[in-house]
Amino acid sequence: MQGHLRRSRIANNKVNDMSYTKRFDGRKFDETRKMEAKAGVISRADGSAYFKIGDTVAYATVYGPRDLYPRFMQNPEKGILRVNYNMMPFSGSGERVRPGGNRRSRELSMVIEKALLPVVELEEFPNSVIDIFIDLPETDAGTRCAGICAASIALADAGITMKDMVAAVSVGRVDDKIVVDLNYDEEAYEDGPVADVPVAMMPRTEQITLLQMDGEITKEELMQGIQYAKKVCKDINAVQRQALKEKYQNGGSDE
Amino acid sequence: MSDEKKHILESLNLNLRYDGRKLTDYRAIVVEKNVVKNAEGSARVKIGNTEVIAGVKMSLEKPFPDTPDEGMLMVGAELLPMSNPEFELGPPGIQAIELARVVDRGIRESKSVDLKKLAVAPGEKVWGANIDIVSINDEGNLLDASALAAIAALQEVKFPELDGDKVNYKKLTTKTLPMKITPVSVTVSKIGNHLLVDPSTEEERSVDARLTVALTEKNIVCAMQKGGDMPITDKDVDAMITLAMEKSRELRKFL
């Protein structure tokens, strides 16, 4: 994942002889990085959010429902959701990211769209489009999950009817440990097998709306990872809800 | 003439702006430096609700054949659809291209960065400074915000380490960019017979002509760009540059 962006293996990466006994940044294995969320950060948008987890920062903005063009794409029965994922040119830890998107960003846009689709009541918005733009100024792995978390807050902020919110986190395996919210250093761990499993969920029903994986993992380990994700997505959702409460308790105007 | 423009003109005739500012007032300016860890230099500039981020990524480049002993300076601007409902995805439009080129000229023509000091092996390898500007929220005057952010980001650049002919982005040195001059750009807009600075979204739609003036600390004009559909007189130019000189001193305090 993010191969072209992945840092070369850092020195002193090896903590112990055989196994990954302690996380590089000292977190517990089922602990996320520090999170911060805000709703309504971009005044031009109909809805917007900022979501930070560790050093990964995502903005999400929602424009719409607005008229969909070209006209032949309009559907009189329901609206469409359109997501664009974009890393800012200076957001990666290595070389500059060339702007304008690539195969990876197109795929991520698509899977994020599918992750959000089940909660959005598109039947309410015939002939319309809801545009979601996810833009990342700073990245340290887990960008699609951070983008989903931000987008979900932004949709709610825009007043789009939703069945639930969506929370997302990557779980996975580093060597012999199941871990939550991998950072770049962990994704690039070289002294043992690594698996990265981004998961998005509707926290209320625990239904999974995004599941990807690359690396090596057994079925048992994967299932344990998903159990972790269930718990963590509820914690993330509390942060998302808090962000919305903070905005709307203060009268709800954009800053 | 649109009703909006009529109304703005009538207000300006009474010396009034919608947000209560004087014609020569900027909105509140905030400059935050080092806002992106993965960039070698970065800055966020807010002018009122307008917000941009500029980030600098350093890279090793082969010099241009006509300037074998000079480093490279590249400015790119992305007017992200997140920041304005009228911005669209896709390759940079004419507004983004103009913005990037105007910012580029202000920096380049003022000889702000001593490009000769960026040579690593003349004719073979030189440092390139890639300045990328992204719009976060467009409530008018992206030009001045972008120029200010670009200079602020350049001032913060720390060179990454060189491992032979590879850039090690994980290790930054204490070396900074050799900067001699700090150009600041002020755009003066003309609506009817009125000159004003820092237009809001509504005012920007009604602008007849604008002049962006890049100035050094010694009030040398180092780049200009006229925009807008209407002509201006030599008297206008005189008044616009005078106003730009006055306002550039205010802006420079934020660097």
Quick recap of the structure?
The complex is a heterodimer of chains A (255) and B (255). In chain A, 25% of the residues lie in helices and 28% in strands. Chain A is α+β, with helices and mostly antiparallel strands and 255 residues long.
SSE topology sketch:
The complex is a heterodimer of chains A (255) and B (255).
Chain A: E1 35-39, E2 47-53, E3 56-67, E4 80-87, H1 103-116, E5 128-138, H2 143-157, E6 167-174, E7 177-180, H3 184-187, E8 194-202, E9 207-211, E10 214-215, H4 219-249
Helix pairs in contact in A: 1-2, 2-4
Chain B: H1 3-13, E1 29-33, E2 41-47, E3 50-61, E4 72-78, H2 94-109, E5 119-121, E6 125-137, H3 142-155, E7 158-163, E8 166-176, E9 184-191, E10 194-197, H4 201-206, E11 209-215, E12 221-227, H5 234-252
Parallel strand pairs in B: 4-6
Antiparallel strand pairs in B: 1-2, 2-3, 3-6, 5-6, 7-8, 9-10, 9-11, 11-12
Count of distinct strands of chain A: 10
Question: Largest sheet of chain B at a glance?
Answer: 6 strands, mixed
Task: Note the overall shape of chain A.
Answer: globular
Low-confidence stretches of chain B: none
Oligomer: heterodimer
- Placed side by side, the strands forming the largest sheet of chain A appear as 1-2-3-5-4
The H/E string of chain A reads EEEEHEHEEHEEEH
Helix content of chain B: 25-40%
Question: What does the model show?
Answer:
The complex is a heterodimer of chains A (255) and B (255). Chain A is 25% helix and 28% strand. Chain A has 255 residues and is α+β, with helices and mostly antiparallel strands. In chain A, the strands form two sheets. Chain A has a five-stranded mixed beta sheet with strand order 1-2-3-5-4. In chain A, strands 6, 7, 8, 9 and 10 form a five-stranded antiparallel beta sheet that branches. In chain A, helix 1 (103-116) packs across helix 2 and helix 2 packs parallel to helix 4. Chain A starts with 34 loop residues before the first strand and ends in a 6-residue tail after the last helix. In chain B, 26% of the residues lie in helices and 35% in strands. Chain B has helices at residues 3-13, 94-109, 142-155, 201-206, 234-252; strands at 29-33, 41-47, 50-61, 72-78, 119-121, 125-137, 158-163, 166-176, 184-191, 194-197, 209-215, 221-227. In chain B, the strands form three sheets. In chain B, strands 1, 2, 3, 4, 5 and 6 form a six-stranded mixed beta sheet that branches. In chain B, strands 10-9-11-12 form a four-stranded antiparallel beta sheet, sandwiched between helices. A two-stranded antiparallel ribbon of chain B has the order 7-8. In chain B, helix 2 (94-109) packs across helix 3. The interface between A and B is medium-sized, with 35 and 35 residues.
